Amino acid sequence: MTDPTLERWRLLLGEPGSVCLGGAPLGGPAAARDAALDWLYGRDEDLRRRGVRRQGGTGPSTLTTFDWLDDITRLFPKETVERLQRDAVERYEIHDVVTDPAVLARVEPNPALLKAVLRTKHLMNPQVLRLARRIVEQVVRQLMDKLATDVRSAFTGTKARRAGRFRLARNFDMVRTLRANLGRYQPDTGKVVIETPYFFSRTRRHLEQWQVILLVDQSGSMVDSVIHSAVTAACLWGLPGVRTHLVAFDTEVVDLTSDVDDPVELLMKVQLGGGTDIARAAAYGAGLVEQPRRSIVVLISDFYEGGDPGRLVRIVRGLVEQGSKVLGLAALDEQANPDYDRGLAQRLADAGAHVGAMTPGELASFVAEHVGR
């Protein structure tokens, strides 16, 4: 019987890993898994240049994308299937994963496929576009369900300094609890025994109307931020005290506010790619401001400006000087890992903008904190 650990190494390494099994061939399900991995990773040019060949044979593959998707769904756990699908559409740009009707009908929606749909929807005929919309709807629904919880928590109320009756983890007053229980410090263990925990109370305050203006760079590198901006705007839409605008831009500016309550429709209208004129978008956003001291302008971009960076800095400085909150986000997604022009970002920070990267939940908390003041 083949050692499962050695078999996994053979699958990971491909044909060069045959030594793991003493040269013995794979059999049964393992051989089928190896064929499915070869279909995808056997086309990796970088591996070929380095003399590492995953491809087991020299003949052309008879597998179609449809067959391959059917095989990996049968052969691998869900997490592996999602990784393989993601590599197919992002790493190897196998577009028929999201443009072939037969394939789309079988594929399991996930965030990687959502991004692929947004990048390739211009290639789709109306029939395929209807099927692709299923992916958009399902993934957006999952993101909405997750973010809605964060938004509700952020807008539940702000912490009051008086003690609260409701013992919730998010209301835990660590400083007061430690101060009150220091007498029970145990030197031998280095621990404080908590006899009486303390909690903040939360209060709901009257919320006056605030404008939240999201300006979203729709260049290809910002696809994650575009998706999360649409979902965030939808979650903020209709909240008491908040009026949300959403504007997408490249070298042109498109106001998508009328579709904010329908993030699926909004994302299907987004056109990824093209140049970038951030200053033009900032000027448009500044023109939407009605009460400067009750406005939050969120500029979501990698700050690689194709327009006039000096004009952008002047617009941001003007917004700040009139009392608006300006937030420059180099990323708005679950990882919040930014890749951006640090020089221009620093100039915007010097002009008074808050610059950084946030998850959607952190943005909701930022908005709630200022709206609740």
From TrEMBL:
InterPro entries xref list: LolB (IPR050458), Uncharacterised_CoxE (IPR008912), VWF_A (IPR002035), vWFA_dom_sf (IPR036465)
CDD domains: VWA_YIEM_type
SMART domains per the UniProt record, alphabetical: VWA (SM00327)
SUPFAM superfamilies: vWA-like
Residue intervals of the VWFA domain: 209-368
Pfam families, A to Z: VWA_CoxE
Protein name: VWFA domain-containing protein
Species per Swiss-Prot/TrEMBL record: [Actinomadura] parvosata subsp. kistnae
Lineage, highest ranks first: Bacteria, Bacillati, Actinomycetota, Actinomycetes, Streptosporangiales
